[in-house]
Design a protein that fits this description.
This is Glycosyltransferase. The protein has about 270 residues and is α/β, with parallel strands linked by helices. Strands 7-6-5-8-9-10 form a 6-stranded parallel beta sheet, with helices on both faces. Strands 1-2-3-4 form a 4-stranded parallel beta sheet, covered by helices on one side. The chain is built from 9 helices and 10 strands. The protein has 2 domains: about 100 residues, no CATH class; about 150 residues, Glycogen Phosphorylase B (Rossmann fold).
Length: about 270
Amino acid sequence: MVVFRYQNNVPRLVPTLVMASLVILTALKARLMDVSLVWICHNVDQDTLPYFKPIERLRRAALMRLAHAVLVLDPAFLPYMPRRDARAVSFGAKRDGSVSAENMVAIRAFADRFDRVVLIAGQDKGKYKAFARIPEVVARFAEAGLEAGVITAGMAGDRVFDPATEGRVLRIVEKNIRESALAGQVDFIYRENADISMPYTVYAAATASIPVLTRRGNILADILEREGIGLCLDGDITQPRQAYDFSGFLKRHSWDSLSRILTEQGIEV
C-alpha cells in the first residue's frame, strides 16, 4: 500500500517540480502495479502554504483521480471534496510532548495574575491566524469582566502588540508542547485556520480537557460546537469545563479509524 499525506510545495520552483513529478509518477506506478493507493488529504482546499498554484492543482488533481481511497479528517470536509466516495478518518489522543521546568515556573507565575489564561501554539504565518487575534481575545474576555493572559508557544516572537496587550503575553519556546501538563494553568486553547483542515491542536486540547476557542466564520467553529469541545469567541466563555464532552470526542475519534475505513473499502492495511 502507498499512502500520501503532506505534499506541501516549497518556495522554490525546481524542488516543487521534482516533488510533484515524483508524486504523480509514484501514483501512476502504484495503479499500474495494482498497489493500493491512499491519499489522506489533510488540507482539503489548498496546501498549507500555497506556492506555485498551477503545479499544486496538477498534483492534487492527479491524486484525486488516481487514489483508490481519498480520506479527509472530519465529516464536515466531505461536501468540499470532488470525490463523492471520500471518507472521513481522524487523529486520536495526543500522548507526547513536554514542558520544561523553567517554562512551568514562568507559566504558573503568569497564570496567577489572571482570571483566565489562553494558550496559542504553532506557526504565525500563512493560514495560521491565531496569533493575530490576541488583542481581540483579550478584549473579548474584558467584555465578560475577566482579565485574560495569553501564553504563546511557537513562532510569535516577532509580532509586537500595543503596550497594554504586551503586558498580558508570555512568550515561551517549546518545540512540541504537552498541553495536558498545563491543564491546571490554561483555561482555553485558541486556534484559527484560514483553510479547510483539522488542526491536531483540537485532539491535544481534548486530551488535556482544555476547551478550544476560535472565531466564528471558519470551519473549525462548526466542528467545536458539533463535538462539544469548545466554542466561539462570541459564546459563553464563562461556562465551566464540565460543560464540554472531551472524553466523548476522544471515543468518537481515534487513531484506529484509518485501519477500520480502509478495511471496509477492501484495502489491506
